[in-house]
Specification:
Elements (H helix, E strand, L loop, with lengths): L1 H30 L11 H11 L4 H10 L5 H12 L37
Length: 121
Amino acid sequence: MRNSIRNLLKLCFFLTFLFSSYFCSSQIAKDSVVTQDTLVIKPASFQKKMEENKDKNKFNKLVYKLFFKNSSSKESSKKIIDLNRFKDFEGKIIRNIHITTLDPFGYSIADSTKKPEKFIE
């Protein structure tokens, strides 16, 4: 009696395993079919449309700022000015080095006489 119940349980487990493996394999086969992407956006036209619509409302302006970087001449001219600032000292020997330590908040590197007005600055 016990032997027949054991055999019946083995048969049930085997059939359950067989059916589950069949259904799982059929699901994998359906998912493995590659479909071509239907959404194709040309980058130049997308940027042009975003640029045309950016001034219509604040949300469009925000999205435009997040995705696209404006090429401004201000940044490039600022870099050129910074490089030309040390042109007079090029090739000279450094004799004395003076180190001034400042607190990280409130002090200005360009103007050492400027001090913070409040404790929080």
